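note to self: dont lose this again. the chain is below, predicted strucutre after it. 183 aa total, dont forget to put it in the shared folder this time
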Amino acid sequence: MEIETTPLAGVVLLHPTVFGDARGFFMETWNQNVFADLGMSAHFVQDNHSRSRQGILRGMHFQTQHTQGKLVRVAQGEVFDVIIDIRADSPTLGQWYGCTLTGAGHEMLWVPPGFAHGFYVLSAHADFIYKCTDYYHPDSEISLAWDDPTVGIDWPLVDGDQPQLSTKDAVAASWADIPLFHG
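---
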C-alpha cells in the first residue's frame, strides 16, 4: 500500500496494491495489521454504500456526538471528495482538501474524526463505499453549507451547473454557525 500525505494532518490518500489480469482484479480494501503498521489505528463498526447520479452533492456532514473516522472509496464511477478541518485546536482549522476518487484508480481516503465530509459525483453515476469508526447518529448530525464562502471550496461542477442537494443540505449551516470538534 502506498501512502500519499495531504496538507491536513492525519488525512492520507491510500493507493492499495491491485493485482490484475485478463480475469479482472483483486485488492485488499482493509487489513487491520497493514493499517496498524502504517500508524493508523481504527476500529470500524459500520460500512455504508451509496449510489448517486452525476451532479449529486452529498455533504458537508459531521456528527457532534459519536464522531466518525471514515475510510472512503469509490467502487464504480468518479467523485470529487472533500473534507474540511473542523478541529478546534488544529493549525489547519477551516481548511479544505479535495481529491478525485475513482473506481478505476482504487484510491481510498482516510478521514479521521474532526472533519466535515462530502462528495460530488462527476461520472454518470458512482458507487461510494465507506467504513465508519462509530455508528450513524442522526440526532447529532450537522450539515455545513457546501458553498460556504468562508471555506471557499472549489468544486469542479459539471457544465458549471448547480449541484443537486438533499433538503437538509440545501438549508445547511454556515461556517460561523457550526460547532467545532474538540477531540
